[in-house]
Specification:
The protein has 4 domains: 202 residues, no CATH class; 126 residues, no CATH class; 82 residues, no CATH class; 47 residues, no CATH class. Helices cover 37% and strands 12% of the residues. The chain contains 16 helices and 11 strands. The strands form 4 sheets. The protein has a 5-stranded antiparallel sheet with strand order 2-8-9-7-6. Strands 1-3 form a two-stranded antiparallel sheet. A two-stranded antiparallel ribbon has the order 4-5. Strand 4 and strand 5 form a beta hairpin. Helix 5 packs antiparallel against helix 6. It is globular. It starts with 13 loop residues before the first helix and ends in a 35-residue tail after the last helix. The site of adenosine monophosphate has 17 residues, from loops.
Length: 535
């Protein structure tokens, strides 16, 4: 049987058709001027093997044949076969890394294959990550290892099923080759399995794609890229004009705020919020040393490279997004006669984020925004930190347990036993001092008062809360278990986790083992508690 549907993918490559290309056809590492991209072919690999596949992403591309029935999916999404209609290229972009302008970066190991228009007229760009060196690879090899590819594949899909805007992942292919990585940057390089993920998104354009042209004074190319982006990705804003530029920047600010609200809701820490890792569509992009909050600690970052400054810690992500938007605004100044539209976008980010974040925090408690309650509600949602952070409390479990805490018909004064319902969320029960218990019970009393004001039953409260507080997230140790098995040639846990994470809000009694706290062995293990950028 042939996977003939692949041959029928309908490519329409607007990015390469409309925008200036690198005039030098040679794939050599260099500064590329006056161009949005360089054409480059994926490097052929010895033995591509498909090991995981997302059927939901396949459906977006009208692919429903069994990809494992033939070797073709591995050939195409491992980069060995370029299909008719594909026009592979690497994008030129720059970026601020950890707050400093880094100049040209670009797709150093990502190769866009082309844009597919599906039967519903939706446009999807296919991009291979880890498919070999490009003009933008600088001193690196253009490759990716299995562990980071498993993490990207699973997390993109998990985030999408959680309702978080994200790039998607279609496939995970082993290259059959070894890739050398010094995982801890300690002079101990190892040969690891190489892998390639096929990522899928309407577009992979980043803030840094615009920044590079502003930084170089290539303002004509900048405008071409902006106009192309508005026409292709923001067609509802109308033809490029002063008005649509302003509306466009505001929309980027708003969708970025939406993404941040979602990250804060589910406890996701991106880890490397450089401006080259910020999607113009407000999608979570570039899954590297990301992590999930387990014990609630707003200062936590999973990224070892950021351990001292903690620039990208959980609680600071909303401010960093604003800083990144300000850098994008700076890059777009030449499009505007005054700074007013850019300032308006940034102001919108702050007000919109605050409003949405407040509603989200209430929503996690099963509560709606009620007029006249703003001050008390803000105090209630702020003060939950006094319950979550002084003792090691698993954020995900806490909210699911709070959802089933009985409040209907409870005695006027809640007593100590009320905390029993939350006990699963605590890592170290010995930390629950008298003081802590009094604080927690005090907060629960206020919470009950507010629930009664809203007039909802325990049942309704639980339904509301379970719809926004996931039961299952991709805890770092879970990805690590899948990676350990995959390293031994057993890919079953990748598919199992993908299946589990398809329904993150549902009770899944067969999978209680993944609904519990992070096991003790994972507390300090690399890959589970901290990750390096080496990938
Ligand atoms: P990241 O921190 O993963 O977002 O990457 C920052 C920059 O480094 C981007 O331009 C990447 O394309 C590039 N890069 C990261 N890893 C590699 C690699 N193994 N080979 C080539 N370029 C890379
Ligand atoms: Mg990146």
């Amino acid at each position: 049987m042939k996977f003939s549907q692949l041959e029928r993918l309908n490519f329409d490559n607007q990015f390469t058709q409309n925008l200036p290309a690198d005039v030098n056809p040679v794939n050599s590492r260099r500064q590329v001027r006056n161009a949005c991209y360089s054409r480059v072919l994926p490097t052929k690999v010895t033995d591509p093997k498909l090991i995981a596949w997302s059927r939901e992403v396949a459906e977006l591309l009208d692919l429903d044949d069994d990809p494992f029935a033939t070797t073709e999916a591995g050939e195409v999404f491992g980069g060995n076969r370029v299909l008719a209609g594909m026009d592979p290229f690497a994008m030129c972009y720059g970026g601020h890394q950890f707050g400093n302008w880094a100049g040209q970066l670009g797709d150093g190991r990502a190769i866009n294959l082309g844009e597919v228009v599906n039967s519903r007229n939706r446009r999807w760009t296919l991009q291979l990550k880890g498919a070999g060196p490009t003009q933008y690879s600088r001193t690196a090899d253009g490759l990716a290892v299995l562990r980071s590819s498993v993490r990207e594949f699973l997390c993109s899909e998990a985030m999408s099923h959680l309702g978080v805007p994200t790039t998607r992942a279609l496939s995970l292919v082993l290259s059959g080759e070894k890739v050398v990585r010094d995982m801890f940057y300690d002079g101990n390089p190892q040969r690891e399995l190489g892998a390639i993920v096929c990522r899928v998104a309407p577009s992979f354009t980043r803030f840094g794609n615009f920044q590079i042209f502003a930084a170089r004074g290539e303002l004509d190319v900048l405008r071409q890229l902006v106009d192309h982006t508005i026409r292709n990705d923001f067609p509802h804003l109308g033809a490029p004009s002063a008005a649509s530029y302003a509306a466009w920047f505001s929309e980027i600010c708003r969708t970025t705020a939406d993404m941040l609200v979602h990250w804060m809701r589910v406890g996701f820490v991106h880890g490397v919020m450089n401006t080259d890792n910020m999607s113009i569509l407000g999608l979570t992009i570039d899954y590297g040393p990301y992590g999930w909050l387990e014990n609630y600690d707003p200062n936590w970052t999973p990224n070892t490279t950021d351990a001292s400054g903690r620039r990208y810690r959980f609680g600071q992500q909303p401010q960093i997004a604003l800083w990144n938007l300000a850098q994008l605004g700076q890059a777009l100044i030449s499009l505007f006669d005054t700074l007013e539209p850019l300032q308006a976008g940034l102001d919108l980010y702050s007000t919109y984020f605050n409003t949405e974040c407040r509603a989200m925090m209430l929503g996690k408690l099963g509560l709606n925004v009620i007029a006249g309650q703003t001050e008390t509600d803000t105090a209630l949602t702020n003060d939950i930190l006094d319950v979550l952070s002084p003792v090691e409390t698993d954020m995900t479990i806490f909210y699911r347990r709070l959802a089933v805490l009985p409040l209907d018909g409870t005695p006027d004064k809640l007593d100590d036993s009320v905390l029993d319902a939350l006990s699963d969320a605590y890592y170290l029960p010995a930390q629950l001092t008298e003081d802590y218990r009094a604080t927690a019970i005090g907060w629960l009393q206020r919470y009950r008062t507010r629930v009664r004001l809203e007039g909802i039953s325990d049942l309704e409260r639980r339904q509301r809360m379970d719809a926004v507080n996931p039961k299952y997230v991709l805890r770092n140790y879970m990805a690590q278990l899948a990676i350990d098995k995959a390293d031994q040639g057993d890919y079953s846990l990748i598919s199992e986790l993908l299946e589990l994470l398809r329904h993150p809000y549902d009770e899944q009694p067969n999978h209680e083992e993944f609904a519990g706290k992070r096991p003790d062995w994972a507390r300090e293990r690399a890959g589970c508690s901290m990750l390096s950028c080496s990938s």
